[in-house]
Q: What sequence folds into this?
């Protein structure tokens, strides 16, 4: 448990609150009679995202609640159940309850379980009821008292070293979505957990009912946590299992021991339970359990940052006007003023850069959540998994980052669930038992590419087609190309998974993935080889991305070459250059021939040097192709902010954008794949002339 | 945006080789001095390049070359009119190099005359119409077409 997931909690909460807002809006439209499928899809996606997120972060109660909610929504979506105002009502109340639960979890306080439990039971009742009418249910769990909070002043956590827990699941516990494994995983996050399973009641395979949990567990949790934290984990299972929680060693705390099966009744006086937002939590324990929390960062709206950015921009202009004025002044004090203004300018630049960097974050903030997820998924699905990641320091604009979090989670889940085969299948196919999920991020051609790939079974085109025909997405005798078949999985509600699992398979995902990526101007491509695996490549724009650039001068122009594409820079010896049929110049470098691209010729500008031996050759690589860019000299390396030329002008082949240099000049950023394309498109004659000139 | 029958619109006028041109004043963002631009490869000769305008690259168009007039020398007195033109659901910022900024006139829509057919002069397709003010003829430009042609 080395990875601290807490750093992502804040994002999850913010995203969830936002999502709940849109769910509410959609529900309100639904209640006004606009019962269209897209609205229900929107609502469903919100529930699905929150469920996924809360399960990942171990917010078991939220996950359990949204699971039921999702099941109901699925029934609505598939048309099994009609949308009625009573259902909309209960869904709206679910939004409220979810908000309560999430904000309580955010404050690291227990939510009011009575309210959630009551509604949860109502939802479950509707889900089970054969027709659309919500059965009036007296919530079975509604009587559960709020979990106790240790009385202020006392500090039981110090005295208690851990808990001995005995869990005997009831026959119907699994049916109600209470997964013992999830509880144990949750427990394991609180401290060191030792579990012992009793399989004594498991019958022979022929008699086994997979829906019934016949195992029971004895667990020892070595941890400083309070009783309430342990109880919370089993909150939903109360009444469906026999549970006892006892301290590992007898202590003199007033909150223990707890009699077996007596978890539900109140453990502590009501007055201190059900904390309100401002209620004074037991300070010591609270502080111990909430390391850093919100202290490290604040959330600021992007608009405010943009305002700041613009103000700083104006300030830079004013400063340069001052400098220009000062340059014309004469006299004793003019020099002092100029010196002061130089300082001013330096500070100004630093300020501008910091403000710009506020918007940029490394993709690691998203990648970091995957190791844990892969581990959990692997355990849950019984698959052996390895995660490979690279490029997690690739920086992306924050708005872009926020939008790709969910899609990436979906893609990774899909890859694990549908892509990677079970170990025995892999062995039979002659593969390593351990499946590999890879996440790669890198800059390419003015974009950031994120690839999610697996070495699993690949997509089954036959099955996709069959499913699509069943769902009426494709006509019975319509023939489709391979590409089109693969693209079917981006259709809303499409899923080929036979089992709807906690992980994936409800057909939500790929449509959301594509939608979210398209919204930020990105592009999704799917590649799949049967038996070898699949890869989803996401191309993201980097309107505001920062790039490590090498400044190179050609005549008066300064170009910026992305450092990531530079292989090496060399001085050319005449005997290394050969021309090919008078049409191209090649440089022999060790054992390969590299085409020489004279940048001044490609861009139609003037260079200081036209003789190859006088300048420098930057060997760059893109798409596996190498060329040498002939430049006059290399200058500094610096991080540059990429500005789109497209906004005010248009896209220019071979250019990824422009950036502002310190002296107020605009420098063009080369798009290396584009440069190569442009070079290859050049009329052969032009290149022939070139090599003759050089000779 | 009042559209009264006698609605008048304000135009900023500027000089170009002795002729006076007008642009709807609402499009004008600012007027600034000339500073060096970075040439964009493979763009028309009247597209001088891009200039750093508060951290944003803004394309700068030489209107003399655009209208196939005698090119002028650029110096400290050269003026760039920065305009913002709606383009699709966004706005495009473009700078126009002119000889000098002249006046602001109120011009009634009713006093606007359309351009007679004069063949295929480079400027004719971006002219919105002609108007009279202070006894002079003003050539009113259609900024949307001017910039749309410039960038595509």
A:
């Amino acid at each position: 448990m080395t990875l601290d997931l807490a750093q992502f909690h804040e994002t999850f909460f913010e995203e969830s609150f936002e999502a709940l807002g849109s769910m509410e809006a959609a529900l309100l439209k639904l209640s006004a009679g606009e019962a269209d499928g897209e609205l229900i899809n929107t609502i469903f996606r919100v529930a699905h995202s929150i469920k996924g997120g809360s399960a990942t972060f171990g917010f078991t109660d939220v996950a359990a609640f949204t699971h039921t909610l999702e099941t109901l929504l699925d029934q609505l979506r598939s048309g099994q159940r009609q949308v009625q105002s009573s259902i909309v009502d209960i869904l709206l109340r679910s939004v409220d309850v979810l908000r309560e639960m999430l904000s309580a979890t955010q404050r690291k306080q227990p939510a009011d379980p009575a309210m959630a439990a009551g509604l949860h039971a109502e939802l479950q009742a509707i889900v089970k009821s054969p027709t659309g009418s919500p059965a009036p249910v007296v919530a079975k769990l509604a009587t559960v008292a709020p979990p106790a909070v240790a009385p202020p002043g006392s500090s039981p956590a110090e005295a208690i070293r851990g808990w001995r827990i005995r869990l005997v699941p009831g026959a119907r516990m699994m049916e109600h979505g209470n997964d013992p494994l999830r509880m144990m995983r949750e427990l394991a996050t609180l401290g060191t957990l030792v579990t012992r399973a009793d399989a004594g009641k498991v019958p022979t395979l022929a008699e086994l009912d997979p829906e019934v949990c016949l195992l029971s567990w004895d667990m020892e949790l070595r941890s400083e946590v309070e009783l309430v934290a342990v109880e919370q984990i089993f909150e939903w299972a109360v009444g469906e299992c026999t549970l006892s929680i006892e301290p590992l060693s007898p202590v003199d705390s007033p909150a223990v021991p707890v009699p077996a099966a007596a978890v539900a009744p109140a453990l502590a006086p009501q007055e201190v339970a059900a904390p309100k937002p401002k209620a004074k939590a037991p300070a010591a324990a609270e502080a111990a359990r909430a390391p850093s929390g919100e202290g490290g960062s604040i959330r600021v709206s992007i608009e405010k940052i943009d305002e700041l950015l613009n103000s700083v921009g104006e300030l830079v202009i004013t400063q340069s006007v001052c400098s220009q004025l000062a340059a014309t002044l004469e006299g004793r004090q003019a020099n002092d003023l100029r010196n002061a203004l130089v300082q001013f300018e330096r500070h100004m630049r630093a300020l501008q850069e910091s403000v710009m960097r506020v918007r940029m974050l490394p993709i690691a903030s998203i990648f970091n959540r995957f190791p844990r997820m892969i581990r959990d998924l692997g355990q849950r699905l019984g698959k052996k998994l390895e995660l490979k990641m690279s490029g997690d320091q690739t920086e992306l604009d924050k708005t872009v980052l926020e939008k790709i979090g969910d899609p990436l989670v979906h893609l990774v889940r899909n890859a694990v669930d549908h892509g990677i085969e079970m170990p025995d299948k892999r062995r039979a196919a002659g593969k390593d038992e351990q499946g590999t999920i890879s996440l790669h991020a890198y800059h390419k051609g003015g974009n950031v590419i994120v690839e999610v790939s697996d070495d699993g079974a690949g997509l089954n085109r036959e099955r996709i087609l069959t499913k699509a025909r069943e769902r009426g997405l494709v006509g019975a005798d319509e023939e489709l190309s391979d590409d089109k078949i693969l693209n079917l999985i981006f259709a809303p509600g499409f899923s080929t998974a036979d089992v709807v699992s906690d992980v994936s398979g409800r057909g939500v995902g790929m449509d959301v993935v594509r939608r979210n990526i398209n919204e930020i101007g990105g592009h999704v491509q799917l590649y799949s080889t049967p038996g070898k695996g699949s890869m989803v490549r996401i191309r993201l724009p980097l309107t505001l991305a920062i790039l490590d650039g090498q400044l190179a001068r050609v005549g008066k122009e300064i170009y910026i070459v992305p450092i990531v594409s530079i292989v090496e820079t060399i001085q050319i010896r005449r005997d290394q250059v050969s021309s090919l049929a008078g049409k191209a110049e090649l440089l022999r470098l060790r054992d390969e021939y590299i085409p020489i691209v004279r940048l001044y010729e490609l861009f139609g500008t003037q260079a200081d040097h036209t003789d190859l031996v006088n300048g420098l050759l930057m060997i760059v690589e893109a798409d596996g192709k190498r060329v040498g860019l002939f430049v006059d000299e290399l200058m500094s390396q610096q991080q540059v902010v990429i500005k789109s030329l497209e906004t005010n002008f248009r896209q220019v082949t071979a250019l990824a954008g422009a950036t502002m240099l310190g002296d107020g000049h605009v420098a063009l950023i080369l798009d290396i794949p584009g440069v190569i394309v442009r070079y290859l498109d050049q009329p052969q004659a032009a290149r022939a002339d070139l090599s003759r000139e050089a000779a | 945006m009042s559209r009264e029958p006698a609605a008048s619109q304000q135009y900023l006028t500027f000089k170009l080789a002795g002729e006076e041109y007008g642009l709807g004043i609402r499009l004008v963002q600012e007027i600034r001095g000339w500073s060096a631009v970075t040439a964009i490869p493979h763009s028309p000769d009247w597209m001088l390049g891009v200039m750093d305008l508060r951290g944003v690259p803004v394309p700068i168009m030489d209107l003399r070359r655009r209208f196939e007039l005698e090119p002028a020398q650029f110096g400290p007195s050269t003026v760039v009119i920065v305009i913002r033109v709606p383009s699709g659901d966004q706005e495009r910022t473009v700078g126009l190099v002119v000889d000098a900024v002249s006046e602001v006139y109120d011009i009634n829509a009713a006093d606007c005359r359309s351009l007679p057919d004069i063949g295929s002069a480079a400027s004719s397709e971006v002219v919105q119409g002609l108007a009279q003010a202070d006894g002079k003829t003003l050539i009113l430009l259609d900024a949307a077409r001017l910039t749309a042609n410039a960038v595509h």
